[in-house]
Amino acid sequence: MKDMDHQHMDMPGMDHDKMDMDDMPGGHMMHMGNLKLKFWVSLVMAIPIILMTPMMGLKLPFQFTFTGSDWVVTAIGTALFFYGGKTFLDSAKMELADRKPAMMTLIAMGISVAYIYSLYAVIMNNIVDPSHHVMDFFWELATLIVIMLLGHWIEMNAIMAAGDAVQKLAELLPKQAHVMDENNEIKEVDLTQVKVGNVLLVKGNETIPADGLIISGKTSVDEAMITGESKQVEKTIDDKVVGGSVNGNGEITMTVTGTGETGYLAQVVKLVSKAQSEKSNTETLADKVAGYLFYAALSVGILAFIVWMFTGTFSQALSILVTVLVIACPHALGLAIPLVVARSTSLSAKNGLLIKNRNALEVAHTIDTLLVDKTGTLTEGHFVVTNYQTYSKDFSESEIIGLMASLERGSTHPLGKGIIQKAEDLSLQIPTANDTQQINGVGLEGHIKDDLYKIVSEAYVKKNQLLTDELVSDDEGDSISYLIQNDKVIGYAAQGDQIKRESFGLVEQLTKMGIKTIMLTGDNQHAAEKVGVKLGIEDVRANLMPEDKAKIVVQLEGEGHNVIMVGDGINDAPSLAGATIGMAIGSGTDVAVDSADVILVKSNPTDIVKFLTLSRNTRLKMIQNLWWGAGYNIIALPLAAGILAPIGFILSPLVGAVVMSLSTIVVAVNAITLHD
User: Fold this and answer.
1) CB contact burial 67-77 (16+ within 10 A = b; e otherwise)
2) CA 249, CA 413: separation in Å to the nearest integer?
3) By the 8 A CB rule, do 596 and 574 touch?
4) Where are the membrane-spanning stretches (predicted)?
5) What is the DSSP-derived secondary structure letter of residue 375?
6) Which backbone phi and psi does 145 adopt, to 5 degrees?
7) What is the distance between the alpha carbons of residues 11 and 54, in angstroms, rounded to a whole number?
8) What confidence score (pLDDT) does residue 166 get?
């Protein structure tokens, strides 16, 4: 892996409290627990209102009234408006402050008009002029608040809680470090006290606490968090190490060049935070429709009020205005999307998909490019013995694996686990090794019978000139471990990633859907191209850092492409957050999962195609439901405003209520018919 210069910057979000929130339609958020409680309390308050008030003038068989019931309904309705309606009123203020009225503004307008006019109706009916009945809208107020809260709850319950990827990145660093003073004494200090220039001791298998430069010792470091590749990188004096990567068996001392607030992770955090912030501002399809409907209802209502002021009475004009604004209440529109999302996420779960960001379902039809990580996404993501060979007439190939497994028995090193697994797969009788011990930065050694055996790296063999032309392997791109018997190389085992069976055929399916596939990987070009050739991926980009992947996403989107990024590692987090749709492998890191919009639970690449197919069906249902929800308003608003009054027809509130109820039922039934 090539060295890199780490820029120094503040670590954004490192001290932020973890938020337990979900996106609400309209781009606003609230606690899931609060929403659930608010719905149930609002429902309890709505029931007596529904029982004691008519629906737009229509008294239903189960309804009843009694002396003073108007005042009871007014009291309960007031409590419901300020308690259950507060969510929508507060969110509407935010939408209006952003000059982007959408669903929350439309709902807020509906409940505000219904409440204020109902207060007016109660006062007129009971105090000012009891002889002339003025219709109230408490029934509409109660049902709208409850249905809208239910819609948000359904949607939020269907979509997983988005975790805090920034917090997960912060947790990669250990809480303490071993600081070495000028007398070479070691002290345990809190990581926040570590400063640039400090000398740290990093023991075997510990997480490296900060960016730094090795000043003594040899080791191998797992830098999967940077490159995403399951490969140990040899490190020695003057080599750079990155905070958050995992030290191997060797012990090293290092000089700190960057702390938790100025090191490499800060770059990744900044990229993730910026991308998530930009994506959260995406306007949903329902918000756009609601915004148009808000302007339409307001314009039609005001125009109708002015016309009726000149052609009728103030009372008629006010009644027409209120009827128009209340009929615009988005009962069906508010449920149109949540019901489809709930149905879609249920089908997704059955297909091994978890949808975290609703917008992913709405924009998937625009995708024309798939960016896919190699290790852990297209491949298995862990060390597997891909080839092994003997150089000695005294040992067979399987015996080489058996001897290596003997030395590796009990090892926690990824390469050791791969050797042991291969021996188990071959059902080998593993001999007993004695006096096994680590060779810092090299491998390990031990005695089997009377001979000394060593498992060493390719670098060790070359350095000690033990590798002749006849012993050079052709497994470029894999990690090679050589077995030495009494200073003579007798065999080797190559370990690398195996391509997932499900990866074959993926590119062909995506091509049929008009989507180009590009591989992005931190691995070397040769290893990446080997996988690319086998899978039919022509565009392969290797040796990439997290910021490189993020730049490619930005570049492609700047050229007008809509991209899906699929990955599994910390190094993929910035590009996952920044892509049009970020898709994480379920077996990947918490940071990758929290940065993504969609999770492939089964870690199966072919589920990408399932998601695209389901999302296209989902969007079709969304559009159909929006037409049903908004279509009712398109017809009802001008009729309620009196556009056909010259021929003696005005849509009565009663008929409007019936049509509104029917449109809600149609929306619900249409959502249920969604299939994968």
Assistant:
1) eeebeebbebb
2) 8
3) no
4) 39-58, 64-83, 104-125, 137-154, 289-311, 317-341, 626-648, 654-674
5) I
6) -60, -45
7) 58
8) 54
- How far apart, in whole angstroms, are the C-alpha atoms of residue 325 and residue 346? 35
The predicted pLDDT at position 22 comes to 38
Q: What is the dihedral of CA 351, 357, 362, 368, to 10 degrees?
A: -80
Angle between helices 607-641 and 314-327 (to 10 degrees): 170
Which of 580, 595, 622, 389 lies closest to 494, judged by CA?
Answer: 389
Interval 544-560: pLDDT, tens:
888 889 999 999 999 99
Q: Which of 32, 57, 39 is nearest to 121 (CA)?
A: 57
pLDDT at 329: 67
Instruction: Point out the catalytic residue in the list 373, 475, 572, 594.
Output: 373
Pair 25, 337: CB distance under 8 Å? yes
Instruction: Give the separation between CA 105 and CA 101, rounded to whole angstroms.
Output: 5
Kindly state the average pLDDT of the residues 613-618: 89
What is the tens place of the pLDDT at every residue in 442-488? 788 999 988 999 998 877 888 888 876 666 555 555 778 899 999 89
Report how far residue 135's alpha carbon sits from residue 113's, in angstroms, rounded to the nearest whole number.
13
Residue given tokens 């691995």 in the structure block: 523
Helices 103-123 and 314-327: crossing angle in degrees, nearest 10, is 140
CA distance 80 to 91: 17
250: which 2 tokens? 């060797």
Q: Tell me how far apart the alpha carbons of residues 165 and 13 are, in angstroms, rounded to a whole number.
A: 10
- Whether residue 626 contacts residue 286, with contact meaning beta carbons closer than 8 Å, is answered with yes
Single-letter residue type at 499: I
Identify the band that residue 216 occupies on the pLDDT scale cut at 50, 70 and 90.
very high
Confidence of residue 250 (pLDDT cuts 50, 70, 90): confident
Residues 27-34: contacts with CB under 8 Å, at least 24 apart: 27/102, 27/280, 27/281, 27/282, 27/283, 27/284, 27/287, 28/90, 28/91, 28/94, 28/95, 28/104, 30/87, 32/156, 32/157, 32/161
Element (H, E) at 186: strand 186-190
pLDDT of the residue at 416: 84
Question: Can 373 be counted among the known catalytic residues?
Answer: yes
Mean pLDDT of 309-326: 82
Pull the structure tokens for residue 157.
């319950």
3-state secondary structure 532-571: HHHHCCCEEECCCCHHHHHHHHHHHHHCCCCEEEEECCHH
What pLDDT, on the 0 to 100 scale, is given for residue 560?
94
Question: What is the DSSP secondary-structure string of 631-648?
Answer: HHHHHHHHHHHTTTGGGT
